[in-house]
Amino acid sequence: MPSTATAEAGPERLAQATELRRRTLAWGRAGETVGLVPTMGALHAGHLALVRAARRQCARVVVSIFVNPLQFGEGEDYRRYPRDLSGDLARLGAEGVDACYCPAPEAMYPEGFATRVAVSGMARLGEVAARPGHFEGVATVVTKLFAATGPCRAYFGEKDAQQVALVQRLARDLDLGVEVVVLPVVRDPDGLALSSRNRLLSAAGRRSALCLWRALAAAREAFASGARSAPRLARVAAAVVQQEPGAELDYAAVVDAADLSRAQRAEPGSRLLLAARVEGVRLIDTGLLRPEPGGQG
Ligand code: PAF
């Protein structure tokens, strides 16, 4: 697949939506498909798995790096969110990414910006309930990224399962010519789901954070042993997090695989959603329940 970027030069940096549009239009005219990987930076192996899938499937790859203030509520970690633009650009150069779209907040939301995109009908649980306004912020920035990129494949990680559902709905509803591609959760060998926020944890905090993986394993174990009550399976997972002194449970919910509404009865493929706070860092995790216990994902 063609790529103008080299590891030394890194990807071309674009700061304005108009510049990005000009590039993608030129690629489109040359018959080249475009892959977009939207991120907030502080890139880890989970992001790089999205980038590599995009490199395999598309002629050109754009990664956006933008810590989106609209999706952080008051008192959340917008200022503390990890940022590492030079490290990210080096990583993207090594992956042969063509362009990195990293606008300043004032370029994304100039003075007077007054539009919000809202996707209705999402079940009031998980991140929807815990972070009011969060998904309106996500939907608004993702719509802007899709509009600036134009027709493309856009790559998202399954760890943000509710975000994935929102983005899929939005892409279908708005006829933007965007095909959403979803890749599995990437974990460290001990099971911790990769997250940019993991950088904020001490070694002890990281050990505490493993309770999310243990909670998922416990729910899977109970499911594999025949438990089918969704509230009970959620309680099994919650109890594991509550037993970890370094973690504070936010929620544990078992949801329907198709529409992520709260399930009463768990089926193979039902999904566990989890969130907890460790050392003040909010972490989420998710996984499918399936007939056999253990395994990754
Ligand atoms: O998943 C993320 O990193 C962000 O929510 C996204 C999709 C880049 C929008 O800011």
End-to-end Cα distance: 29 Å
CATH class of the largest domain: Alpha Beta
Strand portion: 15-25%
Which small-molecule ligands are present, each listed once? pantoate
CATH fold descriptor of the largest domain? Rossmann fold
Helix and strand topology:
Layout: E1 12-14, H1 17-29, E2 34-39, H2 45-57, E3 60-65, H3 85-94, E4 99-101, H4 105-108, H5 127-130, H6 134-149, E5 152-157, H7 161-173, E6 178-183, H8 203-209, H9 211-224, H10 230-242, E7 247-255, E8 271-278, E9 281-288
Parallel strand pairs: 1-4, 2-3, 2-5, 3-4, 5-6
Antiparallel strand pairs: 7-8, 8-9
Helix pairs in contact: 1-6, 6-7, 9-10
Pantoate is lined by residues 38-40, 68, 71, 138, 141-142, 160, 163.
Description:
The protein has helices at residues 17-29, 45-57, 85-94, 105-108, 127-130, 134-149, 161-173, 203-209, 211-224, 230-242; strands at 12-14, 34-39, 60-65, 99-101, 152-157, 178-183, 247-255, 271-278, 281-288. It has 297 residues and is of the alpha/beta class. It is globular, with a radius of gyration of 19 Å. The model has no long low-confidence stretch (mean pLDDT 95). The structure holds pantoate. Pantoate is lined by residues 38-40, 68, 71, 138, 141-142, 160, 163.
At a glance:
This protein is of the alpha/beta class and 297 residues long.
List keywords for this structure.
10 helices; Pantoate--beta-alanine Ligase, Chain: A,domain 2; binds pantoate; 36% helix; three-stranded antiparallel beta sheet; Rossmann fold; alpha/beta; 2 domains; 297 residues; 19% strand; single chain; six-stranded parallel beta sheet
